[in-house]
Amino acid sequence: MYRERMLKWIEELADPSTRGTALRELSVHRESFPDLAPMLWQDMSKLMFVLQEISSIHHTIHLGLLPPDKVQRVCHALILLHCLAAHPETRTAFLAANLPLLLYPFLYIQHSTSQLECLRYRSLAVIETLVLSKEQQVIKFLLSTKFVPVCLRIMVSKEEPCKKYATFILEQILLDDIGVSYNCQTYERFGLIAVHLRELVSSLSKKPSVKILKCVITCYSRLADNPRFRRMLRRYLPYTLRDGTFAAYLQLDASAKHCLTMLLKKLFEPQTPYTSDAYALD
């Protein structure tokens, strides 16, 4: 029964009069259809209508005036892309077809409205799903398509849900050996990340988020692993990470607290006579 319903909705993607309903039903009931992604990929003619739904607003999003029903349809289409990115049988082909590039116009746009924020959020969710696969081909794709600068801009300028996604994605890129090596190849790449992390920490001191803070600490720790930039990072590291500004919030996450203590040891302990207790966040 479930399979019959899924096939019916996939077929209805071809009809403009039923496409909106089909997009909604497939996205809402996607968890009931574990084979949705492979089946959608195998029927490329129907998938093209999903992709067309997304690309149809690329030329108008800069205006920031989109009909709510159109935004909703595109969000449903983005959820179906999320399914393709998440499924192990379609992820590699999804990347090989460069389909994540369809998301980039929603990430590049500078101004914010509630509609654009929704599209940006759904797009980042697809990228997050890709990096969660821990596959280096994902990291290589993001690096080759210059995703990091876009990610950094979202981290410091958008609403908190998108900030969380963007900061987590950056963390996953830097946790990968290829990702951290690429971003530590030049002073420009390293400096761009360090400057944006510092700006993000400044905003967190006014509106704390333990989840974002933990990702930031991990990013700093990975950058600090590079001997070439470790000394420079001592200058870039915000003082608020050392003066107890976040101590009360870090009490809520023992892992984040430990990560910060280890980061401070890594950066400063060889330069001072203090013991590791000097950096404990009590």
Describe the protein.
It is built from 17 helices and no strands. It is elongated. It has two domains: 1-133, Leucine-rich Repeat Variant, CATH 1.25.10; 146-268, Alpha Horseshoe (Leucine-rich Repeat Variant). By secondary structure, it is mainly α. Helix 4 crosses helix 5, helix 11 (160-175) packs across helix 12 (177-183) and helix 13 (187-204) packs antiparallel against helix 14 (210-224). This is CCR4-NOT transcription complex subunit 9.
Q: Find the CATH topology of the largest domain.
A: Leucine-rich Repeat Variant
Q: Could you estimate the helical fraction of the residues in percent?
A: 55-70%
How many beta-strand runs?
A: 0
Report the total helices: 17
Order of helices and strands: HHHHHHHHHHHHHHHHH
CATH architecture of the largest domain: Alpha Horseshoe
Determine the CATH superfamily of the largest domain. Answer: Leucine-rich Repeat Variant
Query: Nearest-angstrom radius of gyration?
Result: 21 Å
Structural class: mainly alpha
**CATH class group of the largest domain:** Mainly Alpha
Overall average pLDDT: 91
Question: How many domains make up the 3D coordinates?
Answer: 2
Sum up the overall morphology in one term: elongated
Strand content: under 5%
Distance between the termini: 58 Å
Major pleated sheet: none
Stretches where pLDDT is under 50 for at least 5 consecutive residues are 272-282
